[in-house]
Amino acid sequence: GRTNKPFQTRMKEHQNNIVKKTQASALVRHIESHPGHEFDFDNASLIWKSNNKLETQILESACINTLPSCNVSQGDVYVGSTLSSVIVKIANLQDRTKARHNRNQQRPPQLYIPAPAIPQHTPILQPSPPHPSSQPSLQSSQPTPATPSPQSTPSRSA
User: Fold this and answer.
1) Per-residue pLDDT tens for 57-116?
2) With the CA atoms of 112, 116, 117 and 123 taken in that order, what torsion angle do they form, in degrees rounded to the nearest 10?
3) How far is CA 153 from CA 71, 115, 143, 150, 157, in A?
4) For the region Disordered, what residue ranges are annotated (predicted)?
């Protein structure tokens, strides 16, 4: 969760809540509803640090919506599921939290999926010339001479 306290102080508070079974704590509720689940405080780490309150509120809500958590609330601000996914992806939190979550688990590597093949030579498409019947005719019904003939030249009278 989001806090303005030093990280170690907040971890101690979480541990104390578990020992005292403080019902307001999401961690305590999770442990009670999921017997056998424990929290690894020794390997806990910060996922984001900022002095901008709105930034941390948005990021916290996005993480709650997108990543596995035991948070009781949805966060202080509403962030829709699509935007949450984008925020977590841009902040590169999904990969960091997965790596941390999988640190102690032995999982088979994911299948290799090659990138799509791109042709080395892109064919150049040239437009084919238009069919003669598809072009409108620019000729009139009577041929016009290219150069005026001497008979058709107007004469000047002096």
Assistant:
1) 999 999 999 988 777 778 889 999 999 999 998 888 876 555 444 444 444 334 444 555
2) 180
3) 98, 74, 17, 5, 13
4) 97-158
Domain segments of the chain as ranges: 7-102
Residue 49, token pair as written in the block: 């640090």
Per residue, the 3-state secondary structure of the chain, as one string, reads CCCCCCHHHHHHHHHHHHHHCCCCCHHHHHHHHCCCCCCCHHHCCCCCCCCCHHHHHHHHHHHHHHCCCCCCCCCCCCCCHHHHHHHHHHCCHHHHHHHHHHCCCCCCCCCCCCCCCCCCCCCCCCCCCCCHHHCCCCCCCCCCCCCCCHHHCCCCCC
Distance of CA 26 to the CA centre of its chain: 29
Taking the C-alpha atoms of residue 82 and residue 68, their distance in angstroms, rounded to an integer, is 16
